Amino acid sequence: MEHTIAVIPGSFDPITYGHLDIIERSTDRFDEIHVCVLKNSKKEGTFSLEERMDLIEQSVKHLPNVKVHQFSGLLVDYCEQVGAKTIIRGLRAVSDFEYELRLTSMNKKLNNEIETLYMNV
User: Fold this and answer.
1) CATH code at 25?
2) Domain containing 90: what range?
3) Fewest CB atoms within 10 A around its CB: which of 6, 14, 84, 89?
4) Which residue ranges are tagged as binding site for ATP?
5) Per-residue confidence band for 28, with pLDDT thresholds at 50, 70 and 90
6) Is the whole model's pTM more than 0.85, yes or no?
7) Where is the site Transition state stabilizer (predicted)?
């Protein structure tokens, strides 16, 4: 059976109970979860990248198959680097789906082997 890897991207500024719920529920569905913290120098956040990484690492330390990384650039490039075939995104409202669908369409054009899984928060 193939080793499955999924990516949960976001700014996580800060990480919330909704984020943690999705991360925890994902651990049963995939062998490895990569929580990818967006590194965006154009956007000033509440917490620094290092603080966000630390908060996430502390929050998921009880989940052995979760790895926390930072990334900049195209998410599909990161997925290709680590061998992930799934991007997991959380949805809170219908308006989230419209935005996420545009991102999914763009990602599909860049790499049609990567699927997006939506999870309700």
Assistant:
1) 3.40.50.620
2) 5-120
3) 14
4) 11-12, 19, 90-92, 100
5) very high
6) yes
7) 19
